[in-house]
Amino acid sequence: MDNSKIKPENIIVMKVGPHSNMSLSEIIKTKQEEETIHGVHYWGYSGVLCQPKKAQEFCRWSLSVSNQAPRLILIETQSSYISNIGAINYFSSNGNDFEAFSGPVQLQGAQFAFVSRKLKKVENFALDDYLVVGGKNDGKPLSLHLRYRVNKSFARIKPCNFMDNKGDTVPQITVLEAELVYPYAIWLES
Length: 190
Fold this sequence. Notes:
The chain has 190 residues and is an alpha+beta fold. Helix content is 18%, strand content 30%.
C-alpha cells in the first residue's frame, strides 16, 4: 500500500501565504533551509487559536489514540500580511524558559511556531474529510470552521461511514503537509 496516499488521522491546519514582503514560495525555500540547519523548520503564527500549550496537548492526545503525532497542513491563502515586528531570536518549549536559536530562522511578527519537518506538497486535500476538534465548532466539518478570519484549527478525520466524495477540495491552491515533531509548538521572543 502506498502510505503517501493515506490521509493523516489528526491534523493541525493553518492558512499560510505571503508574509513580511516574502512570497509563499520564498517562505517555503527558507523553511527548507531551516531544516538543513536545524533538522526541523518553524512555521510562525499568532492569535488565540492553537496556542502552544493547547497544540502540545492535542499532539499528546493524538499520540495516545493513534500512536502518531498530527500532521501540520498548510493551506495557501491569497491575503498578505506585513509584519512590523523584528526578527525572532529566542524560543521556549514551556512558555517560561527561553533560549536562543542555534542558527538563523525566518520568523517575523509571530508569537508562536509549529515545529515540523519533511515539508511536501499534497494533492486534492479535502477540508470536508475532517472535523474540528475543540472550541465552539467541535465536531463540525473543517470547511465550515476555516473561513473568513479563522486561520487555524485542530481536526480529526471523519469516521469512514461518514465519508463522501463530495468533499470541499482545494486543488487550485498550494497545500503542504509536514510532520510535527516534539515539542510540536513553541513560544517565541525577539
